[in-house]
Backbone:
């Protein structure tokens, strides 16, 4: 087993990843819940919102980090 070197991660990057995870993860979990409840339109909209948030996150990381 090896150790992961986390000294290259800045505080700004850590906070950015944390905030986006607090947005993206609940969107996908709510989407799965809505799909199991039979609310397909709401579930698919939440999946699309999660994908859009992920794309924005990737663009943000490429631009600023």
Residues:
């Amino acid at each position: 087993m090896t150790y992961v070197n986390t000294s290259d991660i800045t505080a700004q990057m850590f906070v950015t990843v944390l905030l986006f995870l607090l947005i993206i993860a609940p969107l996908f979990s709510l989407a799965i819940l809505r799909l199991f409840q039979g609310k397909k339109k709401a579930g698919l909209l939440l999946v699309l919102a999660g994908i859009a948030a992920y794309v924005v996150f990737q663009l943000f990381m490429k631009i600023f980090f």
User: Anything to note?
Assistant: DSSP finds two helices and no strands in the chain. Helices lie at 11-36, 40-64. Residues 37 and 43 are 9 Å apart (CA to CA).
